[in-house]
Amino acid sequence: MSSESSGFPRSPRPEWGGKPYHPISRVYRERFGAKVIKVPVSIADTCPNRMGLKGMKTCIFCDEWGSFAYPESREDDLREQIRKHRSKVAARFNAGKFLVYFQAYTTTFTALGKLRDGIETALSFDDVVGVVVGTRPDCLSPALLELWRSTSERAFMAVEFGVQSFDDGQLEWMRRGHTAGQSIKALERVAKEAPGVDLGIHLIFGWPTETDKQVVETAKLCNTLPITNVKLHNLHVLVKTPLEELHARGEFEPISLELYAHRVGLFLSHLRPAIAVHRLAALSSRWDELVAPQWTRHKMKSHQAILDHLAARGIRQGIEFE
Ligand code: SF4
Questions:
Q1: Rounded-to-integer distance, Cα 95 and Cα 98, Å
Q2: Is residue 8 in some structural domain?
Q3: Domain count, the chain
Q4: Domain span at residue 32?
Q5: Ligand 1 test: best mutation among 43, 46, 57, 62, most atoms within 8 Å of CB?
Q6: What is the pLDDT of residues 48-78, one digit of tens each?
Q7: Would the pTM of this model clear 0.85, i.e. be above it?
């Protein structure tokens, strides 16, 4: 049923602060009573793909820093990283509380003891209200689930899975080394065995074989999963990645901003309103690493263009779901 025929209003919900989607910042504010920003840190330096386990290869889009926002300080000890990156994001976003985000590579591929110590270190900061662990769906163990479960009983404990796509053909093309079924199973397993853990997923739009129908199906699938949030990325080409080689050979071209905005609109309109959204498009962690598309270089302009696309068509999150 369309939003027009159902009679639901197309205007943004007041509780979303005027945004046409459910912003994660609102969720944090409601939960912690203050503005909360994530502080990216790294305690991992590799992942199963980079190690070539079971014949796996580096993901087609992954830069040499394993998607870490602050590669220049990855050698610093964790306490130093938290101090440095916290002051950067505090100044930029005027925040007073923080979540330490174990972002780079595959954090759960590192020794469990290292992650346990890292969580202890993070939670020892007075203004850190919880931790977020970024990982792959195929790097779970009973001991890890127990660590997450016990942490969730005393602090905010979130996990973000790099799902990227629910299409096995696309997952193979990007050399992820896991299937859509493994992603779904991993989410269900964490929800069952560590129910206090907050679950989110990362998705990428802009695959060569991607269709509108597939984007809608992805949103519908998300609605059935035990997740509270989703982070959207546009597939972009960074230097020293396998995708850069494909792009140089003319075998891959990123989608336009117009098409990406269209796909985001489709996805959001079918997404359950309760699922929070981190952001509408990815950013290269370092400008000098970006090869294409050029529109992703201009963060605010791209973000505004997507918002304009949604506003012009009266799109907001959940209008088709409702
Ligand atoms: S995206 Fe993650 S799993 Fe893939 S190569 Fe990079 S660090 Fe490894």
A1: 8
A2: yes
A3: 1
A4: 3-312
A5: 62
A6: 777 776 777 888 988 866 555 666 666 789 9
A7: yes
